[in-house]
Amino acid sequence: MFADLSRAYIQKSNLEHALPTSTERLRTTDECLVKSLGAMVSATGKVGIMIIFIVFRSYGVRVMRTLVNKI
Questions:
Q1: Does the model's pTM come out above 0.85?
Q2: Which pLDDT does position 71 carry in this prediction?
């Protein structure tokens, strides 16, 4: 979800920066948002890995396989 949002925002900001009316403040704000979205993508990936590890350790391989097959 955040990865798609990040890609869409990067495309939007690239288009905006090509406009002659683009200001330095806009570029700075966009840069901050792009970095924040990137951090959110990274964090959600790490949380997902932690959840998988916790489920595996708690319930074992059989439940893990069932969950992975549903994804």
A1: no
A2: 63
